[in-house]
Amino acid sequence: MRIDAEVRFWRRSNTPARFQETPLLTQDYLPQHLEPHLMEHGFTGCIAVLENELAALSSMEHDTLIASRHILGLVPRLPEQDGLASTPKPGVLGYHLSTFTGSKQQLKQLDQLCDLGLPLAVDLARTPIAPLRDLIETKPSLQVILNHYGRLEGGPGKFETALDCWPTTLQWLQDQPQTVITLSGLIDPSDAGQFDDWDLPEAHFKPKLADLMAIFGEDRILFSSNWPMGLMTASFEDTLDLLTALIEALSPTSLAKIMGLNAARCYRLES
Predict the structure, then answer these.
(1) SS3 per-residue string spanning the chain
(2) Domain residue limits, the chain
(3) Exposed (0-12), middle (13-18) or buried (19+): which is 217, by Cβ within 10 Å?
(4) pLDDT tens digits, residue range 141-171?
(5) In sequence order, what are the beta bridge partners of 3?
(6) How distant, in Å, are the alpha carbons of 25, 42, 125 from that of 45?
(7) Which residues face 19 on adjacent strands?
(8) CA-to-CA distance for 243 and 123, rounded, in angstroms?
(9) If 91 and its partner were Cys, which of 66, 102, 133, 183 is the partner (CB 3.0–4.6 Å)?
């Protein structure tokens, strides 16, 4: 089983505001555009992280997404105002959070997630460590999926130093077994032009994998292509080649976990 643990879809007319000045991302990115890549490389499917709250989806959009055989489920944004339904809408596997404020409303929602047994995805690129630690330590029974090992908020921007400070920054997560992390976002778009081939980033990041394994272990790391945002640095195939090269020396059991089984467990896709 191979699962891409975070992809996003949008129409050109609904390009997220933060990407509207990026021509590459200001176009349609729909399931039919990703599916050939998933099929070619033997993926069972992907987890679709939605830019908006579930209420912003029309019934047709929702039904179209969950009807795709390669979309295993949806992770909408946590509502800013409303509580969560006692029974999740079909296809909803969890929620993601833009910013942790610690408000009563938000804490209530996190309690509801715990009761429902649904995970919360958090973007490391947009979440400072202090509130992230508050969130995780305040709700120890909540499964938290940390997206983008390579995009720690406030970290150095260049690939030579970007991960060097992270073992100490993230070390406290070693004792938080309810947290997992996606192996994605390793190369910043501003750095991509420095690479003549993919041997350079592989050689640079391979030692960092040992740090990641020491903190999270093989049971708490998930593969993610971060498509289509990852296209700013590389194609789906080059991203897959780089990430699989980083972990190819691991045992077959470890590889199977990172490439899909861990995502299936976290999102309760195991049958």
Answers:
(1) CCEEEEECCECHHHCCHHHCCCHHHCCCECHHHHHHHHHHCCCCEEEEEEEEEHHHCCHHHHHHHHHCCCEEEEEEECCCCCCCCCCCCCCECCEEECCCCCCHHHHHHHHHHHHHCCCEEEEHHHCCHHHHHHHHHHCCCCCEEEECCCCCCCCCCCCCCCCCCHHHHHHHHHHCCCEEEEECCCCCCCCHHHCCCCHHHHHHHHHHHHHHHHHHCCCCEEECCCECHHHHCCCHHHHHHHHHHHHCCCCHHHHHHHHHHHHHHHCCCCC
(2) 3-266
(3) middle
(4) 999 999 887 555 444 444 444 455 566 778 8
(5) 45
(6) 22, 9, 24
(7) none
(8) 19
(9) 66
The hierarchical CATH code for the domain 3-266 is 3.20.20.140
Q: How does strand 144-147 pair with strand 95-97?
A: unpaired
Q: Tell me how far CA of residue 196 lies from CA of 49, 106, 191, 192, 234, in angstroms.
A: 31, 45, 11, 9, 12
pLDDT digits (tens, 9 = 90+) for 40-49: 999 999 999 9
Which residue in 103, 101, 114, 5 sits closest to 49, CA to CA? Answer: 5
How far apart (Å, rounded) are the C-alpha atoms in residues 185 and 239?
9
Provide the token pair at 238. Answer: 């080059």
Whole-angstrom distance, CA of residue 135 vs CA of residue 189:
29
Written as one letter, the residue type at 126 is: R
pLDDT digits (tens, 9 = 90+) for 197-230: 556 566 777 777 888 888 999 999 999 999 998 8
Encode pLDDT of 254-264 as tens digits: 999 999 999 99
pTM of the model: 0.90
The two structure tokens encoding residue 147: 């997206």
| Residues 136, 114: Cα–Cα separation, whole Å | 12
Q: List the structure tokens of 23.
A: 């021509």
